[in-house]
Structures are given as C-alpha cells and as structure tokens.
Amino acid sequence: MNVSTGGRRLRGRAAIAALVCAITLLPGPSYAAPGAPDPGDDQSIEDIHNELNGLYREAEVATEAYNTADVKATEQEKRLTSLRKDLARTESRLDDLHDLAGAAARTQYRGGNLDSTGIQLLLGDHPDQALNDASQARQALRSLVNVSESQQSARAELDRQTDAAAEKLRELKSSRANKAEAKGKIEKKIAEAERIEAGLKKEQTRKLAQLEKEEAQQAKSEWTGPDSGGTSTGSGSGGGRAKASGAAAKAVDFAMAQTGKPYVWGAVGPSSYDCSGLTSTAWAAAGHPIPRTSQAQWQGLTRVSLASVQPGDLIIYYDATHVGMYIGGGQIVHAPRPGRTVTIAPAASMPIVGVVRPGV
Fold it and tell me: How far is CA 304 from the centre of its chain?
C-alpha cells in the first residue's frame, strides 16, 4: 500500500469513528427552575387565574417545541445510523478495489495471466459472462482501467457519504440543543405555576375552582358547531356524545378510556399523556397513525369546517399548540395541562384555530 492511499483509507476510518464518538458523547444539560413570588393578598382571583393560565400556556408552547425537536432528533438519528452503515460498506468496497488494483498492476508488470473472473464478480452485473477469450495483456489493461475508475467513483461516494453524515450530525446536535432549551422553559414555567398554586390559601383555591367552573359553563353556551344544543346521544362513555363509526369510533373509544390519567409533558402513554400525545396515540390505536405534534397535525391532516366537525376529528387551539378530540355534544376529550388529568371539556373553552380530520 502506498502512503497516499493508506492515508486516504485511514482518514475515512477516522471520519467514521469521529462521527460515532460525537453522537455518543453529546451532552444532555439539566436545568433547575428559579424561584417565583408567592401570590399576594392584593391579587384578585381573576389575576391569579390569568397568571396561572399564562404560565401553563407558555409551558405548553415549549412542550410542543420540545416534541417537534424530539421528532426531528429521532429521524436524524435513524438517518445517521443508515449513513454510517453506508460508509462502512463503501469503505469495504474501496478496500476490495484497492486489492484488485494491486493484483492487476502486478499482472500487467509481469505479463502474466490475470483471472478476470474475480474482477467481474465484483464489478460486473453478470459474473457468469466473464470474458475468457481475450488476450492476457489486453484483459489485464482493461481490468486495471476499470478498477481504477471504480476506485475513483467509490472514493467520491465515500466523501459524499462522509459529508452527508457530518451534516446530519450537525442537525442532530441542533435538535438536541433545541430540546434542552425547550425542556428548561417547560420546567421553569411549571415550577412557577406550581409555586403559586402551593401558596394559595384555602379560600383562594375554592374561588379559583369556582371561576373555572363558571368559565366552562360559559364555554358551553358559546359553542356554535353541530350539536350546539348538547342533545346528541350515542353509545359509549361520556354524556351527550354523538355516534362515531369505523376508525373514528376506535380513536374516540381509546381517548375516552384514558380519562383520569395525568398530563405529563412529552408523554405518549400508556400511563400519561400530553395533548398531542393523546390524539396521536389514539389515532395510531385506530390503525391510522398521524403526526406527533399539534402543529404537525394542523399542517398535515385534512381540514374541515367547524360546522361539519364529527367525533374523532381534532380541534386545534391557540396558535396550533393545543389539540383535543371532538366526541360530540359540543365536547372534547383532551389532556389539558400539568397538574390535571385527561378529561372531557367544552369544545369552545379555548380559542379555536380550526378542525382537522385524520384517516381521510
């Protein structure tokens, strides 16, 4: 092996090893939630309610950012694994070509017989059609040229795959950094909200619960979609639930069976869920996988009008950072926020962006 060729082969192996080590050693920073002021007696229940809602909304926005980064990182890790396998195969191919080039050169120099069958087994599409009648010199020269060209092609492919893997590694590092940043925001906002709730007096807690109950009643009266009278009935759990069929019925049944399980950001079951974790898992259980995040569900699924919403459809809220599944009767089942459980709520209890229908 000459120095130039050996150096190139060592650099190829070093590039692969560096990529593997870089993936393994990527750091995973942790965050501590800072303090937050306790609710004062001078704050009204409405102010406390709005402050808590704002903190939990910010946590949910960060949760969707975390989920998006998590999906990207998973895809990038799979692609990187595939690229590493391609790199190993290409390097092995280059080694074989290097050995054949050496054999061809030695045979050409000695003027001896080069067994073309071995070369065509590697380079040809039909090894059984190996040339047996060509002259020794011409066959050796032709083989040497073919091997040299194949070496150049394989080396160029190795360089391309190395560059592609390096780019995927950069993207993976970026996605993991985004996940870490979102994780820090989530933990900070939830800690602030929990500290406020922990500092509430018993009477404040009672008034806060009453305010939320009144808002839910108001939301029921504001529903303008189908079943606005709340009189639809159907089989299954949940009062006022309209009938669903096919995959939609399976999705609704699955989601309804999760009621009472806690909201946990980033969770997709089976013991806990976040909002889009519930809807994506429910539709996957119905045999129709959908995107993981609420924003991807809003962007990638078929949109329908609010007037035609049916059980199993997904109602998208705020800036597409929250999602619930419509079950009929002006109601949704959803995972609301940290500290709460999967529950039934009025479909109009949050600002609606639109409606999407999986499975079509």
Answer: 25
- C-alpha R_g of the chain: 31
**Could you give the residue numbers annotated as active site?**
275, 322, 334
Confidence of residue 153 (pLDDT cuts 50, 70, 90): confident
Burial of 291 (0-12, 13-18, 19+ CB in 10 A): buried
Strand 314-317 versus strand 302-304 pairing type:
unpaired
* Contact between 60 and 322 (Cβ < 8 Å): yes
CA dihedral over 175, 336, 220, 240, signed as positive or negative? positive
Measured in degrees and rounded to the nearest 5, phi and psi for residue 331 equal -125, 155
- Closest CA relative to residue 49, chosen from 211, 216, 218: 211
Token duo for residue 2: 């000459």
3-state secondary structure labels for all residues of 156-225: HHHHHHHHHHHHHHHHHHHHHHHHHHHHHHHHHHHHHHHHHHHCCCHHHHHHHHHHHHHHHHHHHHCCCC
Sheet holding 343-346, edge to edge: 302-304, 352-357, 314-317, 322-328, 331-334, 343-346
Give me the pLDDT at residue 35, please: 44
Burial of 234: CB neighbours in 10 Å, binned 0-12, 13-18, 19+ = middle
pLDDT over 90 percentage in the chain: 37
| Strands of the chain, DSSP E | 302-304, 314-317, 322-328, 331-334, 343-346, 352-357
CB of 60 closer than 8 Å to CB of 337 = yes
Is 103 or 174 the better-scoring residue by pLDDT? Answer: 174
> What local confidence, expressed as pLDDT, does residue 141 receive?
55
Q: Are 283 and 213 in contact (CB under 8 A)?
A: no
The answer to pTM > 0.85 is: no
